[in-house]
Structures
1.
Amino acid sequence: MMRRGTVADVIRSGAMSISRRSFLTGAATAGLSSGLGALAYVNTVRADTVLSRNSLAIPALMDGRAEAGQTIFDLALQAGSRQFFPGLMTPTLGINGDFLGPTVRCRAGQNVTMKVTNKLGFASTLHWHGLHVPAKADGGPHQVIASNAVWSPSFKIQQKGGLFWYHSHMMHRTGSQVNAGLAGLILVEDEESSALDLPHEYGVDDIPLVIQDRRFRDDGSFDYMTAMPDMMMGFKGDVILVNGTVSPELTLQRQRTRLRLLNGSNARIYNIARSDGRSVVQIATDGSLLERAVERRSVRLGPGERAEILVDAMPDSSFALISLPDDAGGRGPGMMGMMGAAGNDAQFTILMLRAGKLDTVKTPLPDRLVDVPSWNAAKAQRTRRFVLGMGMMGGMGMRGGMGRMGGGMMGMTINGRSMDMERIDERVPLGATEIWSISNATPLSHPFHIHDIQFRVLERDGVPAPPYERGLKDTVMVDPGETVRVITRFEDFADPSHPYMYHCHILEHEDAGMMGQFVVV
Ligand code: C2O
Ligand code: CU
Ligand code: CU
């Protein structure tokens, strides 16, 4: 694969990919002095010939501190380094730590202040993905936190219980800053969901999983955006990290475990399933529990999407959470084939699960979970159309065009336009119920994300949303050629001078301009 960079880079990366390939075929594991052995083996996940597993890290829980009727969360953006592989230090970014950040736990109705201190030495932002907050508190590209500055937005938590997350949203830098580690979880609790008989002991039977992929250089540093397809296909790594742990293993402590999944990757799509062929029970989407639990063979998550699943285990059993190859929603062959299925074509292990002695009292699932807000499509004030496009595809800019994309010649577009921070693309009246119709005119799948609100998926190409999509969502996969219609109401926060974003959550696409701005007025 052609790479940019120095000759030394090319030689080194070439050597590295060869050694990785030899691991793929199960070749010798001995004789590797550096961390390369560990590096390479992760790529063999498809063979599941695992030498050693690391115990899964659980992000620290942060409940904030009380001050004058507010709950304050102190979050420091900082640079650090982490040993992902024996003997190799990786320069990283994190929040209150070296890589990723604590799980911010809050309750519906709580008044919070996020006190974000930027100790990075360069500018960044911190966005509350999925939270319904005023635009100026949103942490998007307009709320830049300068080096050494403190940004302290206050807002009330107005959410259904669920898993949300925070991450850098720096204009043109989101991909690299998130890749380096600027992301973490937000756990919102509300009475309705807490009252259910579902596992909810954080880190015991309620386990958050931030699923990411990374590429490493042989000196241990992250290798980001050096390969030709990284911009167009989105950046994909060959090492899977869960909560920052390489080749993770979790010991199950209860018969039934709730896994809260975040696809925190820049571009990779996961099709999450059990290696033993048993099904999982999906109970939540991005922004709420489902009305009813749904049994599933696999759960597909695009970047930015979340889901919660329940897995039941027999005593003394072990199995893995794996990712099955993605077929772009069945729209893959053809263009996708030509593009190598956009690099989502492999099967690999995400997390090993081992059960010890478990007590085997099986509680039935509640058959109704929660009420999920919905809006009547017949009463929507208007439908807005969004067409996702990739500029210069006509000339098959994959080679020639790719090189220019960093320079801004290549456009990732919505309705034919690339993101411009000075341009407001849509004005939404406060209180309006609207249908947003998103069409994908490209050969790749795109996760479309809208700030400010949670929506319901109405239909995909005219077919009503399947039961597992009938929860609140803020990010939705739109496959090649597909049109997805979602509905929501824009409530509470009108502000003509501070926009919210909508964009593709493949961070390289977002950084390249597949993003637009709306104001609520
Ligand atoms: Cu997860 Cu606009 O972001
Ligand atoms: Cu967001
Ligand atoms: Cu995209």
2.
Amino acid sequence: MKFFIDTADVGEIKKALALGLCDGVTTNPSLVAKTGRGFEDVLKEIVQLVPGPISAEVTATDYEGMLREGRHYAKFGEQVVIKVPLIVEGLRAVKTLTDEGTKVNVTLCFSPVQALLAAKAGATYISPFVGRLDDISQDGMAMVGDIVQIYRNYGFKTQVLVASVRHPVHVLEAAKLGADVATIPYSVIEQLAKHPLTDAGLKKFLADWEKVPKASK
Ligand code: E4P
């Protein structure tokens, strides 16, 4: 499973790259707003840092506007993937951009049938939002399982990119279901590395090491 980092914060991207845990990046308007920077500056910087896929989201909601923004962002680098919302106009834009050779990530997916439509439109990635479904007492990972099964049934090439990841169990379940990608906040990447028995074991090893006679010089 590929690890994308879900952030527009260049500092976090650099930290994930240093760990070898940044196969790509996903941004969205809310993540960009948190940086306090202009999106084009941020995107230019990310393109310099990350060779893997970088999702840049359109904010237009009409077909022509999505195409205009998508074609513009696509010029920033060949690894730029255009992120389009899962609405009817968005599906039209997916088909056109895909036909033009631009990769598209269809975002704000909350049901397996929405994911089926995105695949039929030719999306490169589908982003099911698991955390936001869990937030309203629906089972986000069950949706991912259904999408994986449907895509396998028909051999769709669209990659399942698990989004709205909130904690390590989402990552575990995504991997068990065979999702292609999980896009993960940097804080969750650090949480994945942690285990209390690792910390306790390390503490004991270091304490015992103090009792070992040291070679005299
Ligand atoms: C990723 O593509 C999404 O924009 C992101 O994962 C949404 O996460 P959130 O539901 O935690 O805002």
3.
Amino acid sequence: MTHPPVSWSGSRRMLRRLRDIMAGSGSAQDQLDRIVTLIARDMVAEVCSVYVRRAGEVLELFATQGLRRDAVHHTRLQVGEGLVGDIAAHARPLALADARSHPLFAFRPETGEQDFSSLMGVPIIRSGRVLGVLVVQNRTQRQYADEEIETLQTVAMVLAELVAAGELVERAELRPDSDHVLLPQRLDGTPLSPGLGAGTAFLHRPRVTIETIVAEDPAAELSRLSDAVAAMQGQLEQLMQRSELAVAGEPREILETYLMFAQDRGWRQRIEEAIRSGLTAEAAVQKVQNDTRARMAPMADAFMRERLLDLDDLTTRLIQHLYGDPPTPPPVGKDIIVIARAMGPAELLNYDRDSLRAVVLEEGAATSHVAIIAGILALPMVGRATGILSRVETGDPILVDADSGFVYVRPGEDVHAHFTHSMRRHGKLQQRYADARDLPVTTRDGVAISLNLNAGMPGDVQHLQTTNADGIGLYRTEVPFMVRGSHPDVATQTNLYSRVLAEAGDKPVVFRTLDIGGDKLLPLFGEVAEDNPAMGWRAIRVALDRPALLRGQFRALLAANAGREMSVLFPMIAEVSEFAAARRLLDMEVARAADRGATLPTAICVGVMLEVPALVWQLSALLPQVDFVTVGTNDLIQFLFASDRANPRLEGRYDPLAPAVLAVLAQIVGACDAARVPVTLCGEMAGRTLEAMALVGVGFRSLSMVPASIGPVKAMIRSISATGLADYLSELKESPAHSLRHQLRGFALDHGADL
Ligand code: PEP
Ligand code: MG
């Protein structure tokens, strides 16, 4: 038997009937019973069932046409259990011609479903939460068409209203974590932008509730959509004119990405199709977003998940415009801690910076746009604070320690007192560092140490001024590639690097060539699944396999550095021959520029990043070929200990202050000094005071770190004696200890080091 797909006009008719049932008489349960009959008939299915989510993460069969009636209110599945549970757990549709042979199929004999082969189910979603599952089944092995899944999703949107109305199950049951208590709590998240903040919670509720789902007149809805898109574009353009965005380059580019999304024809077409199937414009926008979320959310790739947040942000804006109610800036003049599941950068920019003290997100990653913006705005931000939304109400007092990633909800008096003290100390320290801005960075015994910045956004370069660092020791050129999500051409790169150099003035900037790899590759090259992306096709390996990419970057760097000294650094070099190959490509670009009569840099310094242990045993061959060495301990340590730097389970297992690490670093410094090749270190450990002290002890005279570390590291350096430290460390070199942290802290205490 063949099943003709449900057409748009059929879908519209079904929606109208659904609406009539819901507007008519009878209890919610009666309505639901009539609805499943209607859907089964219109979708030519033998079975239509609705499962509703109840407290305790349970899905209960609430209505059915075709399964055994006495199973209603008896059959229950856990979220995640069986096919229905899987649809709820992942908030994504499933369509299977032979459901019974699927490994997740959970057989429930009381329902009589053994008679049915095919199954199509969709989540019932409202305000981003799965409230239930709508399922149809057929006896034959029916191949459901994409249009049929679409129709069922549309129907599920209407059903969501019935479930959310609170008659079928109490509204409280539908809330996540409904058993939460109003006790003080500490939540552990991930620091995304450092600092401390105290204030009252403001629940950022980007999702707006859609009141009318079914439309009478698709043409009128299409025209409403078109007006709202135009109004939204106008508002985004206006936002870009704002003065603080004009100076900070990156937010502007992010808003441009938004505009690009807003102008995306595919996105617009999908919304228009949903309108033609019978939805109001706002319901259509929401439906397309639900579909996109279901399709993209399971992707592990952080980049794609961030784009999803951008799309969420855009959806909310568009719906607000459809209601003629453009996003209003939240309250001003208060100490606000914004709490959100996730947030798009433009949403954050809607807040008045002076009122904000911190932001806490349930989701969020360090590479997210919103975290980048928080950094630029010097706004403390904690991400991955799981459960925060269900534990906090607007107005609750909150303390955020974004240096450590702790969030204190409704803190007790003692925590409050302690935190206030920390904030005061923090403020005083910042002032002390600012006062020390122009003091020399020299140890007590007169050894000068060069302190430099790690940077990755044009906005970071302004910290050369505030910190008085000597230069940019590491400019990660991949960050803008990731933010933009596209491959910037040579002109765009030239422009970007020129802006960085102009802002740096006469201070040197070391540009590292692209360090993309593993999951970061996706936007440029399409998905490349790798078991070990950190050890996979990344950095110089990609660049040498795609020489045009590297040559384009060289071309831009040469143009931007015309008339000044240029420094360029190759990441993840494992063999001398890789360095030589990259250098050859650079020489070819230099020759090309010279042939064309372009102004060249006055000198070109080419350095190598030492991140792969094998290179340590090639230094005698390598050093004669390089102008400088930069040690990347983030990678070097993960490879030394075979310990994934991104795996939270391994965090703290091996210590950067392990004797083995310090011995390798001492060996590298020794070899570089002997060959008179400048060496610096730019891993995260350089920015932590105790670690930086050890690095001076093993012989480093140049370090590169995040701007916030310059003050504390400088204070430490001015308080120690390099010779005493070196002697102490050389005694400990052979120690069998797991770490020298304890001993080094003792040394620091005994010698009055300012840590
Ligand atoms: C490093 O590996 O230490 C480094 C600075 O590079 P990244 O953190 O960008 O991998
Ligand atoms: Mg690295």
4.
Amino acid sequence: MNKFSLLMSAAAISTIVLPTATFADGTVEVLHWWTSGGEAKAVGELKSSFEAQGGTWIDSPIAGGGGDAAMTALRARVVAGNPPTAVQLKGPGIQEWAIEGSLNDVDDVAKAENWDAVLPPVLAAIMKYEGKYVAAPVNIHRVDWIWANPEVLAKVGVTEVPTNWDEFNAVADKLLAAGITPLAHGGQPWQDATVFEVVALGIGGADFYRDALVNLDQAALASDTMVKTFDQLRKLRGYVDQGFSGRDWNLATAMIMNGQAAFQIMGDWAKGEFLAAGKAPGKDFLCAPAPGGAFVLNSDSFTFFKVEGEDQLKGQQVLASLIMSPGFQETFNLAKGSIPARTDVALDKFDSCAVKSHEDLTAAIAANSLVPSMAHEMAVSRTVRGEIMDVVTNFFNSNMSSADGVQALASAVKRVQ
Ligand code: BGC
């Protein structure tokens, strides 16, 4: 037998022997809020990849866009002394649970796989507590998008998504005059907050956004720029249909698909819905960055709670490694509407919206205009976010003046700081 065939037979043996050895078992109960069409498809990829490695997946979905219901359920589980193995959690929430002593770290996996070298530093910092990885990121979602139905826009002679709010209002007025609902929106606090932060960015730019919604600077919160932000929010209130109250975000996306409305202001999980329904970007729907020339960051990640038993501990390690594997990051994000968290995954199979997201992310990092999402729990504590959401929702659903809205916002934040 020559050297080559020896090597070949060694490889053949290892392919026969290794599968049993490398097949990971382990069990994970995974708490998440991915229940819409696109979301379920994406989390299904995680489940089937985990099971393909020999693991047991117990699914614990808690419906409710934005994850507020899931976070309430999580708190109850932890208080009862029965936390899930892995939880979809993000931003400062990761630190809050780590400080409470509720999380296991997965730093051995992260070191062995050199996560530091493949994650953008801004994301790696969010995933770590006291220098150790306690979370694994699945993606990078962009919040500041406008989605549009090109056929609906064509009815009023418009071919492109507006690039500033004045232009947006002009097109929306034309749509209204033609009897078309300009804005598909779901009146739930997190959706109101999503629209609010996107508008704040477009009116004031990245520095204003950061001062007001990340650093919680009183001068920025009470500024004229914030008054203008509320003015624009009031305008948008006039562009939604009668049935907006309480509507789920994916039903608002469906309104764009079905030609019942022209625009939706939502993160790129909306693209996951379009794709799951077989719609193509540039043809059936348009994606365009919302005004602001920046990038509002939202990254989903999984944390690993303190659980008992070898099986679950092993499950945590296997899941962490799987989440960060390049192949999974590609498959998952193709379904989810986001882009990979890893910087070394090629985007060849991704569509033009994802490529634009990646380009703008790179530019925003260079220009220091990457800002974390307040509405999606990347920027401030849940308490502060809750106060901001209350004010924004009250404003949206009342006749409050912008000046009063701004006053309420600044004092609410002050109260909980
Ligand atoms: C999450 C997305 C999710 C969306 C709607 C966001 O906060 O980051 O993954 O699709 O909420 O549920």
